[in-house]
Amino acid sequence: MKEQPLVEVINASYVYPGGIKAVDNISLSVKPGEFIALLGQNGSGKTTLAKLMNGLFKPTQGTVLIKGKDTRKMTVAECARIVGYVFQNPEHQIFASTIYEEIAFGPRNLGIPEEDIKQRVEEALRLVDLKKPMDAFPHLLSVGEKHRIAIASILAMEPELLILDEPTTGIDFGRSLQIMRLLQRLRDRGKAVIVITHDLYLAAEFAERIIILKDGRKFADGSTKEILSNKSLLVDAGLSPLQVTLLSESMKSYGISENTVRTMEFVEEFLKILKRGNLSRMKKA
Ligand SMILES: Nc1ncnc2c1ncn2[C@@H]1O[C@H](COP(=O)(O)OP(=O)(O)OP(=O)(O)O)[C@@H](O)[C@H]1O
Ligand SMILES: [Mg+2]
Question: For position 175, what pLDDT does the model report?
Answer without folding.
Answer: 82
